[in-house]
Amino acid sequence: MVAYATVEELDEELEGSPYESPDTPVAERMLRDASDLIDVASAHAGDFHWVDPRPDPFVPTTHQSALIKATLEQVVYMLEVGEEHNVIGPIRSVQVGRVTYPQIGRLAPKARDTLWDAGLLQSRVSIR
Question: Does residue 122 form part of some domain?
């Protein structure tokens, strides 16, 4: 899996935050792990919207920008709550009456909002 964001973008994201940028190998691993989670949450949107390697110059589309931003937000969340909480876990569901909502575990709230705003987060609601 390719990481949607770069170490340089992570360094920029963490400027002025209370979190230090991890060493490069750790940051690269965290970005790959976060990208994996974003990929699952977005129903593999990267398969349709991502280009690897990035062209030079790279001018991201709206969907590519959302994948980058959500990945960075996921890494910040991992730094906040600890990497041990960055697990996809089982996809569980909540049922309210006849409506069932599946939930993916441990997606950062900001990353979820970013994907939703870009139309990359599937609602996956079923009514029985």
Answer: yes
Cβ 128 vs Cβ 100: under 8 Å: yes
CB 3 within 8 A of CB 71: yes
Does a structural domain hold residue 11? yes
Task: Quote the domain boundaries for residue 42.
Answer: 7-127
29, HSE (Cβ side, Cα atoms, 13 Å): 8
- Angle, alpha carbons 121-55-66 (nearest 5°): 20
Alpha carbon of residue 123 to chain centroid? 16
Per residue of the chain (128 residues), what is the pLDDT tens digit?
Answer: 789 999 999 999 999 999 999 999 999 999 999 999 898 888 888 888 888 888 888 889 999 999 999 999 999 999 998 876 655 554 556 677 777 665 555 789 999 999 999 999 865 555 55
Whole-angstrom Cα distance, residue 106 to residue 41? 10
